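Re: that backbone. Tokens:
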């Protein structure tokens, strides 16, 4: 049986301590629970009487999501249940994005573990081409690192962007006038504009020495721009 149970704001912390006493993976104590319940409701996701997830909510705002797996990670098999519950709260953007990241990585990771061929979209997830993928714990990053460690990054990046491996750089010292793809955060100033002029794709952030430089950097995609 799967169900969510709710402890309303102001509830007795001892009831929650009683619920988690057999396996308190979060090391919660009475004072901490009291502080949380002062401003939030606490929801627990139960599967056959065992806790699998915990959420803090204040009205329609989600204030915390916690897994109950090893090292308090959110286990893949409960991601859909978590997403469904989060969708009930209007102010959920931060946590909905994280659960979607986990779902996306979990799908690729399953293919990886089953030795299935990975397509371009799968590779874009592994190398976080479109954006950095933040999760609830380090478990998501560990999956990405595991998959990357079993791949040939030069070959994958070449396939993703349809460029020769010689046109890919992983360090600023590798960049030349022929470089089209840069993997990592790229710092731009007046002195290296000519050097990076042919870079079209950056898997990372572009750090600008000043705002005016943005009009002189002509990349097709990156994680975003930041001024130093």
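Recovered sequence:
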């Amino acid at each position: 049986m799967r169900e969510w149970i709710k402890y309303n704001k102001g509830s007795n912390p001892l009831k929650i301590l009683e619920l988690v006493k057999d396996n308190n993976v979060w090391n919660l104590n009475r004072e901490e629970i009291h502080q949380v319940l002062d401003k939030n409701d606490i929801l627990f996701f139960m599967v056959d009487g065992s806790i699998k997830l915990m959420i803090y909510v204040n009205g329609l705002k989600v204030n915390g999501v916690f897994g109950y797996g090893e090292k308090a990670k959110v286990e893949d098999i409960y991601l859909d249940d978590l997403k469904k519950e989060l969708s009930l709260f209007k102010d959920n953007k931060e946590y909905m994005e994280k659960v979607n990241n986990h779902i996306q990585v979990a799908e690729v990771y399953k293919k990886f573990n089953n030795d299935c061929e990975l397509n371009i979209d799968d590779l874009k997830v592994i190398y976080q081409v479109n954006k950095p993928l933040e999760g609830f714990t380090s478990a998501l990053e560990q999956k990405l690192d595991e998959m990357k460690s079993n791949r040939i990054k030069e070959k994958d990046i070449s396939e993703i962007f349809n460029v020769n491996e010689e046109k890919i750089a992983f360090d600023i010292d590798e960049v030349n006038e022929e470089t089209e793809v840069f993997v990592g955060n790229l710092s731009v100033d007046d002195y290296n504009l000519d050097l990076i002029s042919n870079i079209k794709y950056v898997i990372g952030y572009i750090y600008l020495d000043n705002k005016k430089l943005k009009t002189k950097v002509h990349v097709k995609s990156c994680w975003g721009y930041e001024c130093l």
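The two ends are 53 Å apart (CA to CA). The longest helix spans residues 93-113.
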